[in-house]
């Protein structure tokens, strides 16, 4: 069973990193001599590309916040509909008790509301999966490769390598003031790692919340951790390194800095109020996302690139 590899990169808030290799590009040995004419053209192309990719990451972060908020709202409505339906028969109806089938009709409406919010919760989760996959693809697009040959009259660059010995970082030289491309990639990986771990934790909550039911006997085809929640989910999770190649199932969830925990074999389809409150609080807390560190990363990168990423 595969688990995510945690990558923690510490970068001070100053625009001048403490790592000598980041302050002095000469610490990174060029893999191959690059013509000065190409280097002069490569740097502005790489700068434009990095600004674009980090602007995308900042946008995806905002989209995550929005989707997570929507997911929590739908989860809360789902829980409220379930609890109202579950305890309907124990409620004192007062003057409404004389109305025929009032409880039955109310439960039926609550059931429909539960189904609606279940669908919306799944949609929010699907959006968050898409956001993380976009983040990962953005990291893979940070390098700037020579298009064609350096001897061509028109020197062009792209995000795809056309030459086996082209690493896309111009031999490790600094792109702006101090950092080579690899330094931007490391910070981006640290950033995306937080959202990837949080996505996997939220999947646990989604599976549990989608499984709650007022039926005394759980359905035979009820949800479990190893099942796809929507068509093509495992393909998306594979991009996020959240699906095991050996078992073709999602990797075990874990908190940042800790080992994976055993998956839930069978969901509790009738959790009590306290358990559901913990689920909602956990969703809101986003324990794997260090908001302060996320802000710091965007701030430091923005200073290095001379752009505002907030």
From TrEMBL:
Bias (Low complexity): 1-15
Ranges annotated as biased composition (Polar residues): 21-38
Region spans: Disordered: 1-38
Superkingdom, natural source: Eukaryota
Protein name in UniProt: Uncharacterized protein
Organism of origin: Liquidambar formosana
